[in-house]
Amino acid sequence: MEIKVNDIAVDISGRKVFSNVSFEMKKGEMVAITGPSGCGKTTLLNCLGMIKTVDYGKIMINGKNVTKYKDKEKTKFWHDYATFIYQDYGIIEDASVAYNVTLDKYKMNSDKVQKILKKVGLEGRNNELAIVLSGGEKQRIGIARAIFKNATVIYADEPTASLDVKNRELVIELLRQCAKKGAIVVLATHDERLVNECDRIIDMNQF
């Protein structure tokens, strides 16, 4: 898996969010998108995930220009390769922990799910409703979902925001492990501890 960003730009309501952004990401890398609030970190992350359309330039994934993708192609990309860990957790609170990992009621009780929940520190809690989880536990569910899917690209928006030290360190370690297994992990973050763990830094102040 390889992602190349070639000279992309985004305007919102006539305001330049960023321009002339170019960089590359390769298999096994953890990449931080940094900068102050309002600089376009989340917008860039959404562009990389084809949630937001760029106004100029192109994004290449494995040699394919994904900025030209139709909705069907985007859906297939998300189904086959990618997952998004949201700042607000992206959890279905009235569903079980196991369902939130698999998003498939037929796979909830598999051995694979039990192993992943143990890995993220939620062993034995597969039947609990997600609403009872703490913020840190919900964030770990997002990572468990990525591990279950065997995602080759993981997008994460402020994955350590509002977490206590213990949960922050655990989330950072889990993301690092995903990268070591070959995923591209791309993060929009303010967290200096998380930035220091990354292989590459994209400073939005440059754009």
UniProtKB/TrEMBL annotation:
<dbReference type="InterPro" id="IPR017871">
    <property type="entry name" value="ABC_transporter-like_CS"/>
</dbReference>
<feature type="domain" description="ABC transporter">
    <location>
        <begin position="3"/>
        <end position="207"/>
    </location>
</feature>
<protein>
    <submittedName>
        <fullName>ATP-binding cassette domain-containing protein</fullName>
    </submittedName>
</protein>
<dbReference type="InterPro" id="IPR027417">
    <property type="entry name" value="P-loop_NTPase"/>
</dbReference>
<dbReference type="InterPro" id="IPR003439">
    <property type="entry name" value="ABC_transporter-like_ATP-bd"/>
</dbReference>
<dbReference type="InterPro" id="IPR003593">
    <property type="entry name" value="AAA+_ATPase"/>
</dbReference>
<keyword id="KW-0547">Nucleotide-binding</keyword>
<keyword id="KW-0067">ATP-binding</keyword>
<dbReference type="Pfam" id="PF00005">
    <property type="entry name" value="ABC_tran"/>
</dbReference>
<dbReference type="GO" id="GO:0005524">
    <property type="term" value="F:ATP binding"/>
</dbReference>
